[in-house]
Amino acid sequence: MKHIINVIGMGPGEERFMTDEAKLALDDSDVIVGYGVYLDLLSERYKDKEFYQTPMKKEEQRCRYCFEEAVKGRRVSLICSGDAGIYGMASLMYEIGKEYPSCELFIIPGITAASSGAAILGAPLNHDFCVISLSDLLTPWEKIEKRLRAAAEADFAMAIYNPSSHKRPDYLARACDILLEIIEPNRPCGFVENIGREGTKSEVCSLIELRDKKVNMFTTVFIGNSTTEITDGKLITKRGYLIEVS
Amino acid sequence: MKHIINVIGMGPGEERFMTDEAKLALDDSDVIVGYGVYLDLLSERYKDKEFYQTPMKKEEQRCRYCFEEAVKGRRVSLICSGDAGIYGMASLMYEIGKEYPSCELFIIPGITAASSGAAILGAPLNHDFCVISLSDLLTPWEKIEKRLRAAAEADFAMAIYNPSSHKRPDYLARACDILLEIIEPNRPCGFVENIGREGTKSEVCSLIELRDKKVNMFTTVFIGNSTTEITDGKLITKRGYLIEVS
Question: Which residue of B59, B86, B242 to mutate against A (max A Cβ within 10 Å)?
Fold first, then answer.
């Protein structure tokens, strides 16, 4: 019999953004593993469970713990914020899982910040779009830069994850400078902080204004495409190029 | 007082993939509006509600109905499959909503096929990615082609929506031919049909094999990036380029 490990996307934060599939998997677990900030968001409902957390950058240790517990016969769920497979732990779990052939992964999707942030701003991604992380911890900056340029040139709307951190406070400005080589300065943009958690705030602005906004690791940034407008404070991308509403 | 209309992403299908936020909004509605296929997926839980459906391509009529009912004081929810703001009705609702200033939209995100399909295949989008629709109903084909090229050249993983329909059975082959100008033929890919519904099936294959696969309007296609591998039948994209698991 295979040992099943759930890899769960919990969505942006509060329990009301989780799916039943995710909640039932957690109900059925002996131990819930994750980054502390996300474990803290889980409600009273799971207080009889054993929690295991590792700090940021200890993702591998966190994943290995899941397999070590699972092979003992314990029912394990690993939680990720947003979606399990969008900058989440699914990939690393499969990688490490090669060493644990008795274990099988069950990936449970969750609502990623591209969706939850867009819902707050209006409809900024309502056509083809790219999701790009500005974190160069595991990706060379040149690759990120190339993707920003490609996305701008092909007129994709964009959701930008990890736009800033303590160690790289100027990365959003650097990204905007690249986009401004291709996109007009007044292109409608927006950003959302603490989506689905206490202290949610959002703002719409132009690309040139975005350049100097203070953002942090809990901010998701949205860049409109050539059809995007700001109407009544909402950021709206048309769902096509051939549309007339009559 | 504003008349609130909920625009709800119901996720891939079955109720267990919906969030509490979506379900509570439906519970609180007098009338639920949507495309028939999706309304049919709603369970017994909502059987006391009034349903209103329009066929495909009658989206505008569907949206107008929501506003007309809302201004009468009825509580209205419009459901979309997947996410409300990813090829969903959010954008069109904002557009038509300009004519109904007493109404306000509340967008409730759902799990889009990029997330739910990826979870079935493994972790194909576990790094920067693009979402591209092959439907040229509202978008010139040249624009779609440009985006496919840009995505391939910048090494994005891709989720491809609407890869085929009765009227355009060869669009996936056309898209693959464009990608094959840039990407090697054995690039790992995959596709999922009927995600989260009866008859779910999935397959992994190479890009050249994908070219001749039979897909339909309920299929979502995934193209790996340069790090993507097929391992034990799962499609896995590395979460970075600088990783060694020790």
Answer: B86
Of A140, A237, A242, which has the smallest distance from its Cβ to B241's Cβ?
Answer: A140
Sort residue A76 into left (φ over 0), alpha (ψ -120 to 50) or beta. beta
**In the A/B pair of chains, how many CB contacts fall below 8 A?**
242
- How far is A163 from A172, CA to CA, in rounded Å? 5
How far does the CA of residue B33 sit from the closest CA of chain A (Å)? 19
Count Cα atoms within 13 angstroms, Cβ side, for A179. 33
Q: Which residue of B has its CA nearest to A158?
A: B130
Burial B93-102 (b: 16+ CB within 10 A, else e): bbbbbeebee
> Is A20 in contact with B21 (Cβ distance < 8 A)?
no
Whether the Cβ atoms of residue B171 and residue B144 lie closer than 8 Å to each other? no
Residue count of chain B: 246
pLDDT at B245 over 60: no
Which of B91, B98, B143 has the CB atom closest to A126's CB atom?
A: B91
pTM: 0.96
Whole-number Å distance between alpha carbons of A113 and A11? 8
- The token pair at B48 is 């006391």
Beta bridge partners of A205: A189
Q: Are B36 and B59 in contact (CB under 8 A)?
A: no
Per the DSSP assignment, residues forming a β-bridge with B222 are B159, B190
pLDDT at B6 over 80: yes
Amino acid symbol at B45? R
